[in-house]
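User: Assemble these into one structure.

Assistant: Restating your components, then the assembled model:
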Amino acid sequence: MYAEIIIPLALPKNYTWSVPPLLSQAAQPGVRVEVELGKNKRYAGIVKRLHDQPPVGFETKDILNVLDNQPIVFPEQLKLWEWISSYYMCSEGEVMAAALPAHFKLSSETLLVLNEEFGDDFSSLDNEEFLVAEALLLKKELAIAEVQQVLDESHVYPVIKRLVEKKLCFIWESLKESYKPKKESFIRLNPAYEDEEKLEFLLNNWGRAAKQLELLLGWIHLSKAEGEVSKAALLKKSGASDAQLKGLIEKGILISEKKDVDRLKYLPRNILIDFELSAAQETALLQVNRLLQERPVCLLHGITSSGKTQVYIRMMEAMARTGKQTLYLLPEIALTSQIIRRLEKHFGGYIGIYHSKFNQNERIEIWNRVRSGELKIVLGARSALFLPFSDLGLVIVDEEHDSSYKQQEPAPRYHARDAAIYYASQLQAKVLLGSATPSLESYFNALNGKYGLVGLHERFGGVHLPEIELVDTQKDNAKNKSKTIVTESLKQDITATLSREKQVILFQNRRGYSPYQICQVCGWIPHCHDCDVTLTFHKKTNKLHCHYCGRLYPLVYRCQACGSDKFVQKNFGTEKIEEQLEELFPDAKIARMDIDSVRGKHSHDTLIQQFEKRRIDILVGTQMVVKGLDFENVHLVGILDADSILSFADFRVNERAFQLMEQVSGRAGRKDMRGKVVIQAFNTRHPLLKLVQQHDYLSFYQQEIDSRKRFFYPPFSRLILLTFKHKSKEIADAASRRFAEMLSPLYGQYLLGPAEPVVNRLRNQYLMELSLKLPKDGGLGARCKKDILEKIAILHSDKRFRSVVIIPDVDR
Ligand code: ADP
Ligand code: ZN
Ligand code: ZN
């Protein structure tokens, strides 16, 4: 028997191992096995498939070990991996590496293994060697740490080296399971006393050691109240010491045993729905359910604050009551403590959160609880898609338009929304996409009838969408003879809002203090040495930062081109805005939210809670202030620099800008009042701003889809972007041109480039890009991907281009 095995590496294909008869029972698809790849390198792979065709051209090695009693992934998951690997052009191993919690992947450990043929004549060994040899004879193998213990010192390698030379042992890379269940001590009664009479006799004739009697009584009490008695609880209750408990155990009255316990907090498992849907929400829910009977996917287009989440809650409730599981995907789970609290209130212990801030042990526990079906609802970012659902009924993709559903680095560069739709179809589960500003792709699919479409066009509680005012920064500054990022007009609105004790959110998509400094004499701008990127000044560190590679530089005081010392700081980052606000509003409490200000594990959540509790008046931040937040008391939202949002060189720039501004605006005005949004722009005539001002998604969609059609962009075509990376510009250039030549006989009409991207050097690597806009019909896409992979292999066979890294990115 043979097994095709996935190894968590970027290999061009899966390899085959033979299954020795002894392991043939245990080696099933989905279990982890230990295999050797190359010389002495061991990996934990996953069995994808068993078969009886010996591979041609090479001798297979045996599987060394089967690591699981039962599969850790289901067949449908293996199919999902396969689909992602072929659609997004990466290896199944790369998908596996992304899909499994790190602790399943096992780490390799260096072992010393006794050479049994050496025999027991140790006369040739010196003292240190002898100590290790003795230990080896006893245990057959030793980890390096154990050798250190035996020798009682840290410089063990010379000794090991000598032992290997003398052929007493050899070195072996072995796999080590790093997940350790958490154990706790529990105390139970010796079965000899389970009989009531015996126990009573014991208690009545106690005699000495009053404290031990107390312990025993405490145990009886706790076991009645809680069933199981943990050692910690017992010691706490009785106020006894460890030694006193030990006494009772030695007397054979109590028994201590270690058991696995959950690391995750335990909430009672019940469902609590304490709200009613509004009439509009109720109608939307009915429509969604009706449409999902006929179609696998439905799009819920609900404006901000319309109560989409409440509709999701009711859908999840229905699923949970029939015992089915829901996967609730969010763009960035780390930013959504608010929604977690909201859902825990309704679903308690039925809900699990798959969180990037959870440690690896906790992730394995969630994995196991999803697999057993114990968790009914899982909330997570894109990687939660890889959990082993035993009975998935529904996938909710909230904020489905959000670009962080698409993984950028490293492979698999998959889109979680699209992969979820594939996965759900495998499992006959339904998919609900939700957004106030749907992606062009999804809305297009909905209008075409491929997805169901349901609209929810009123805000809950009759709150109006905010009024949006455009402020021309140039005019405003000229009129008021000032030149600050906060215009006079916005300043007045902030003052008015604060005086009504309402809160303000200000949005700027640049962090740091000033995005660049420029020499006033010659125009020189400091750049990163390794990237084609201007450096941002951060006041907190008093350094220049490269936001691409993270490198820090000292401040420059002298122009490196002309020697002048006249620099001006250009543009405003969140840090500088915060500083300005402190000057403008000395009495207001101001806080900043961007990745620099929320580094710690809980600091983001703390900041949100502070804001909720109104301990902060003005919150200034980047994208982070936009996502998944719902604040009752925010009246005013300011977008400080709309031009920078509208000036990206990307075919999705308008879509992203509309979504971002509409989402930011959505934070203003909830419950009892109409909010206001101020958008500051240099070019207030930009047509998109008008559409944002009118909250007119439909017209936006119409304009944008027309232009996509005209220029043959998605959703009308499928985009594959190829990036060529090399430390030499010439080679990166030449490789991309060579590649274009190879593709052009077949796909010439669909090729764009090669061209330099906007940022053409990152981490000291030069970049070139080549893109393909392929028609969607037929098997063209699949064929083209195959051709691309083949041509990559051909290109790499050329010595000159061997070290060029080529990264395919599908549907970017
Ligand atoms: P969306 O997700 O569409 O932006 P939310 O679901 O967050 O909207 O709803 C906005 C606010 O209105 C939330 O604070 C939510 O609790 C409240 N809300 C919406 N619908 C209801 C309802 N039916 N009953 C009670 N509160 C609701
Ligand atoms: Zn200069
Ligand atoms: Zn850099």
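Residues 519, 521-522, 524, 559, 561-562, 564 surround zinc ion (ligand 2) (CB under 6 Å).
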